[in-house]
Give the backbone structure.
Amino acid sequence: MSVQPLQTSAAPAPHGWEPEIIAFCCNYCAYAAADLAGSKRMQYPTNVRIVHSPCTGKIEMEHILAAFEKGVDGILVAGCLEGGCHFIEGNLRARKRTDHIRETLDQIGLGSGRLKMVNLSAAMAPTFVQSVKEIVETVRSLGPNPLKAATKESAVKP
């Protein structure tokens, strides 16, 4: 089975467009780092929605691909430090999955830059904030998810 890349036009992003980002955060480390960032009143872009997950190893490929299919512009997967996963090797499985999905995103023309995985400890609030800022800037440079326009078009057609 061959995968055909998306035929996308390099149209500029609409004026005032901000990327819609989802951050899948594991309970023990990344979510705690995000919480600490909030407690310290550290600023990061408001267009990032955090999804609390028990472990990044529980985030299936289907969750990530479905989010892109529904028009999300970028995804950050944030888990425990490598070797420090509370579920032994959940974050290692997540790393393999995200690497595989990044390859797929390149093959279909969405771009691997729309998906990023980081490993954090609960005390790494500044690193969490920096990772969020980086994914937002990367996705902003890529422009809107072309699937978002296709989703809107199919919803309008009778």
About this structure: The domain at 21-145 is CATH 3.40.50 (Rossmann fold). DSSP finds five helices and four strands in the chain.
